[in-house]
Amino acid sequence: MLVLENLSCGYGPFRAVQSLNLKLEEGSVNALIGANGAGKSSTLMSIAGHVKIQEGKVFYKNNELNQIAVHNRIRLGIALVPEGRRLFPDLSVEENLKIGAYHKSKQRYSTNIERVFELFPRLKDRIEQLAGSLSGGEQQMLAIGRALMAEPSLLLIDELSLGLMPKIIDQCYEVIQELKKQGMTLLIVEQNTKKALEVSEQVLILESGRKVWEGKAEDAKNNPEIFEAYLGLSS
Amino acid sequence: MLFLDLLIQGLLQGSIYGLIAVGLTLVYGLLRILHVAHAGLFTLGGYICVIVTNQTSSFLLAVLTSMILVGLAGMIIYRICYQPILDQPPFVPLIASIGLFIAMEELFRIFFGAYGLSFTELPLQEPLALMQINLKQAEWITIASSVGFVAMLAFLANRTKLGLAWKATVTDPEIASSFGVNIIQVRYLNFFIGSSLAAVSGCMMAVLNNLVEPTMGSVPSYKMLAIIVLGGLGNVRGTLIAAVLLGIIESYGTIYLDDLLDRDSIAFVFLIIALMIRPQGLFQRH
Q1: B181 closest CB neighbour out of A49, A71, A82
Q2: Smallest CA–CA separation between A51 and chain B, in Å?
Q3: ipTM surpasses 0.95
């Protein structure tokens, strides 16, 4: 479904990721983990189109993404939950959700917003409120909700748990489990290794822009030495 | 009655300032560029209006032609002058814009002569009394069209998908494009709309003064910069209020401070004092 072939990407002359190969199966949940600056977010943002692909290719559903303008990638089904939420703070909750369904018809918008409210009932109560006035947890819910409004087949999630209270993190991951049940393909970038392993099937560990380990999440969980070796911490 | 007359004159002047400054604040909001050459587009709008009216005797046709042509000129300026240098620090597009403005003034001089143009038959001069206020048709039309265009702009921004895309692009172009907003289109449209509004105010200025000249944009260019700062850079509502306020203060000042200062000096003294007291502008960008 999503294939990275020998991907190198970065900013200007700087290479954040070196020759990365990766294949995501349809409906799989994948975690990209690694220390700060390992190139996790750059990988994600190059798929979304915001970090320059310097070498190699990225394919999604057999489309080469480099040939597809950033604003058209969502039409292929790729949606982003960016690091730090990056909501439109001066716009209301409803307007933020409308942006999520920007390329959808009015009818699809109504259906999708009901789905989002089922997952996050709290957003319904806050619909008129400005996104910037929400709590951190509500903002993260809105960021996920905004992406779901686009009916994605591939959801890219960057640092889901960053800066959130443990209770909220749990709530967000419950929603991830729900999306997994619905068969959505997920690529999750996380520093919270434990949470990422709980939900994912495939795990990829990056270090200084290179892939250092790839395998099943179960194997990673059963071999804590992997994490000690690559991340300097125990799972 | 003098009090009311002066208020109306102030509103008239303020609506012309408002229409110019809104375009400028739209560009600033979206691209963080101080688009000084906007005043050149205002002048171009005035010239097109006079020329087309003199050729066709239709003022309405002249205004529409002016809006479309100046709108396109704004898009071309964005494409040629700003788009290639968007990554540069803000003073680079600012200098490019000042250069462009000077070049435009010179081009007007070369093509249309240094002394300016007038209408062969000045349109809309009949007096018209509404609610006991006596103004020329042209003056009523100036006020009405400003209110009308601002209302249209508000509708566009708050009630349409395009307005939503525009607001999202202002806040975070990267994420807006991730959700399917074609930000290049939004930018072109922004320049088209802003420039068309400058054209309208150029047309109104032309018909109120019966004169367009190469330098008619210089004083408005200083004033519009001060107005958008006063309005809280990028804040459309604040810009409009600041523009009307400036128009009214100028209007009263020309009567009550006439012995001391002329019209433009009054405007700048007010702007300097206002900015000294509130350097962040009267209205915060929110």
Answers
A1: A71
A2: 11
A3: no
Domain ranges, residue B236: 2-277
- The CATH class, in words, for A26-41+77-231 is alpha beta
Size of interface A-B (CB pairs under 8 A): 66
Which residues in chain A are closer than 8 Å to B169, comparing Cβ atoms?
none
Residue A179 C-beta-side C-alpha neighbours within 13 Å: 33
Tens digits of residue pLDDT in B16-43: 999 999 999 999 999 999 999 999 999 9
Yes or no, beta carbons of A74 and B180 under 8 Å apart: yes
In this complex, do A72 and B165 lie within 8 Å of one another by their Cβ atoms?
Answer: no
Asked whether residue B230 is domain-assigned, the answer is yes
The Cα–Cα gap between A32 and A50 comes to 18
Contact A15, A188 (CB under 8 A): no
Contact: B181, A100; criterion CB under 8 Å = no
Between CA A140 and CA A148, with CA A145 as vertex, the angle to 5 degrees is 135
How many residues are given for chain A? 235
Residue B276 CB coordination number (10 Å): 8
B86 assigned to some structural domain: yes
Whether residue B181 and residue A99 make contact (CB cut-off 8 A), yes or no, is: yes
In a domain, B115, yes or no: yes
Question: How many domains does one find in chain B?
Answer: 1
Q: Residue B106 is part of a domain; what is its CATH number?
A: 1.10.3470
Q: What is the pLDDT of residues B50-82, one digit of tens each?
A: 999 999 999 999 999 999 999 999 999 999 999
With respect to residue B284, please indicate whether it lies within any of the assigned structural domains.
Answer: no
